[in-house]
Every structure is written in C-alpha cells, then in structure tokens.
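Milestone M4 deliverable, item 7.
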Amino acid sequence: MPLAPGTRIGHYEVTALLGAGGMGEVYRARDSRLNREVAIKVLSAAFVSDPSRMARFEREAQVLAALNHPNIATIYGLEGNAIAMELVEGKDLAGPLPLEEALPIARQIVEALEAAHEKGIVHRDLKPANIKITPDGVVKLLDFGLATAPDNDAANISMSNSPTMSLAMTQAGMIMGTAGYMSPEQAAGKTVDKRADIWSFGVVMVEMLSGRKLFEGETIAHTLADVLRAEVDLSKLPEPTPPAIRRLIERCLDRNVKDRLRDIGEARIMLRDPAGGTSAFAKATADKARRPLISWGLAAALGIVALIGW
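Output delivered:
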C-alpha cells in the first residue's frame, strides 16, 4: 500500500508517489528542516524483515554517498528503511535527438560514469530510464542500486517489461541489469567490470541518436538471446552520423571485452572531435604508432650519411 500524502518519515513529509520498483517505492517529499523538495526511496515491507536485503539497502546508500558529482543524483541521508536523495526535475532521456543535442548529453553521461569508475563503482543498469535531463540541460544519472556488493537473494523479482533483474551483483552464474541494455557478459551471468557500463553506453547512444532500441525481443529471453548473439545493427543510426561517432559506438559494442573500449575516459576524448575524420584519441594513437617509424627513419638517415663520409 503506497504511503498517503502527509505521511512523515523522520523530518521528511511525503507529498506524492513518483514510482515503484522491485525494492520499493519512490516518493516526492519535503524536508522540513531545510525546506526543500527531495525524493525518498522507501524499502517495501516485504524487504524490511530480511537482514540481508536491509544490508544491501544500506550499501546502496553508502555507494551513492561516495559519488559526489554534478551529473549524479546526490544522496542526503538515511531514515530507517528510506533513503533521501536529490529530487531531479526533468524528463527521461529519449530519442531521436539531433547530433548537436545528443553530444552534450553523451559527454555528461561519460563524465558521470568516469567519476563513478574512478571510485571503483560500476553502474550496471545504465539505460534511458535512469538518465534524467533537467530543464537546464543538465544530465543526472540515477539509481546506482545495482552497484552495491552481492546479495544472493533472487526471490520476488518482477520480470515484466524488460525489467531490472538484480539476482546478484557480480557473481558468475547470476544475471542483473535491464535486458535490452545489459552487456553480453551480464546476459551470460558472468563477472562484470566497468566495461559493462561502456557497452550500455553504446546501446544508449544508438537509441539516443536513432530513437529505436538496439535490442528488443518478443520476450526477455529473446532480448537476452539477441544481446548474446544477434548482429549489432548500426544501420539504425541516422545519416550522416560522423565517422568518429560510429567508431566510438563500434568500440563500445564489441562483444569481446578485451577488444571493447577499455576506459570510458577514452570516450570523453573521442567525443571532443565528433565531426572530424579523425578523433583526438585516434590522432594520439596514430602519433604514438608513428614515433618508432620516425626513430628508425632518422637512424637510417644518419647511417647513410656516415657511410658516405667513410
């Protein structure tokens, strides 16, 4: 039963229900001490009596508290079985967007992920529904709840509408994430690292530019099968998409994690020159590759001069 408006949770007064998920409900509330609007995430009654789930809830709060970044929703505090956090006004990310609008959003997503990854935190559920765009055009990443330590409880997980599946965190043999956006290693139940977020970023980029989901099956099983084996169809990208952006997306969506873009910071560099034929990252790589050739060429020239002198 949702909380009625006027219900108090500590010094927070509930004013409206914002949404519900597998772990509980999210409400709009007013902070009576600081006189500001906040979002309150309340753990459902079925979870409260379970110590392991409560421990996970507290770990989520600790994870969020460690992420102090302008593009990540801020946590304000814990109140029993509730987390008070920044209320982000705005709309969920949705495409298609023209390139001049999409690229600033992509850069902010990348900067938020880079800040999280630097703290050893992997989002693991990056998707448009977890990306808010404020009226001022500021990106806010939401719901780092899947970034916490493992819990082995797979009970009572809703599996409808390509949901968030949090059967465990990083343990092999378990699945977590949202079907159409999770990486192949997530879909296969393998251990994941920050490169899972890089895959999800690539999927989000395709949808943001094209307005079409990259992986969408008749059922969750079909969607997961597509994530694991279907051809990555970049024909959905609008024309003309700059070559640098196509290359970035291709690097993000490589199923072989060893060949995938290794660090989201590389995406930040590649996004600096989206219209050019060669990105700053590619130029740097090319320069690095040319250095040995220049050195050998110089050595050969000096050798010829020495030979002629002899």
